[in-house]
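Why do we bother with holo predictions? Because pocket geometry can differ from the apo form. Keep that in mind while you read this record for alpha-L-sorbopyranose.
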Amino acid sequence: MGLIGPGFVAAHHVDAVRRLGDVDVVAIAGSSQQSADRKAREYKVERAYGDYHALIADPDVQVIHNTTPNYLHLPVTLAALAAGKHVISDKPLAVNPAEGRTLRDAAMAAKVAHVVTFNYRGNPLVQQARGMIARGESGAVSFVHGHYLQDWMSDPNVYSWRSDPSKGGTSSALGDIGSHWCDLAEHVSGLKITSVLADITTVIPVRYSAGGSAEAFSTKTTGEREPVTVEAEDLASVLLRFENGSKGCFSVGQVLPGHKNDLVLEVNGLTTSLKWKQEQQNELWIGHSKQPNAVMAKDPSLVSPDALRYVHLPGGHQESWADAFCNLIRDAYAWIAEGGAPEVKPTMLPTFNDGYRSTCLVDAMLRSHAAGGVWQQVEFAAAGE
Ligand code: SOE
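The structure, written out:
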């Protein structure tokens, strides 16, 4: 594999790939030769390229991991697909639906594996919940709700490319973490969101930039700074309508002190409710109305067969964010080993179709807010339309 764009999440891509044991990390490309050399030394990778085209042209690289800032997802991924390489792209797949659709269509035409890192799907108890709902164990779904809250942008001295529309896209919090929540909500409930009503806010309208971009979760906030006006949202609440008539709602925010990576999803069926919290990811809450509630542990002897392949340790041995991320990468390489043929894609694995869909959801939310808080349909074109 070769990785382009060594920021916060890149180290976890490299780590996950190395855990597979049969994939070589061949090269890294950065924004300059100097930054690529530095990261290559840090990650102990032999080849470093200051130009991503050179990495894509490297005949030893068969799979490209695109972890660049959002605005580079389109050109980098298109170049990789044109070279016939498999691509694993960070979310959001693209900065708007037009670019998302272009990438989805290009990937399908290239007949390679195309994966977008909606990595929370890789948690065993997420798959447990999904399986229970799909098997009808919760009864028909009536309500899907939750939140994804963080605090790493609470300090106005944190200025990341996510707040710059020319690099992050028009949306910030919704594209960055709302995309994860919506993907998980649709994946677990098995239902598509059809329309949305969004209320979007920028709590911190002026940030102070030290020149470059702060890495996500960076704590470096000192030094000379310039004020920058920010228009992209850092807080949003959204009402949802799903295809079967179920309702939903969620909030996202990145300026909410105390909330680190607080993703919560609850799905209420007519007989049973299921709740999963990312920060307590080894437990699944199962709610009943006619018997006591239960908490299922992530234990290989308890989970259903479809979730078992994502559990690697006995009960009571905590698995975490990096393990779930690795589950996604493991499925991605299983698919790649089969040549990326659509019919053998592992069910859990999110593709560019899911990535494109996510850009459509965020777009509907932005439209809803711009229209003054009005319901908007999700406009998504199925492949081949
Ligand atoms: C920063 O908000 C971030 O790193 C996201 O970009 C990731 O997708 C999320 O998993 C954790 O938080």
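Residues 120-314+357-365 form a domain with the Dihydrodipicolinate Reductase; domain 2 fold (CATH 3.30.360.10).
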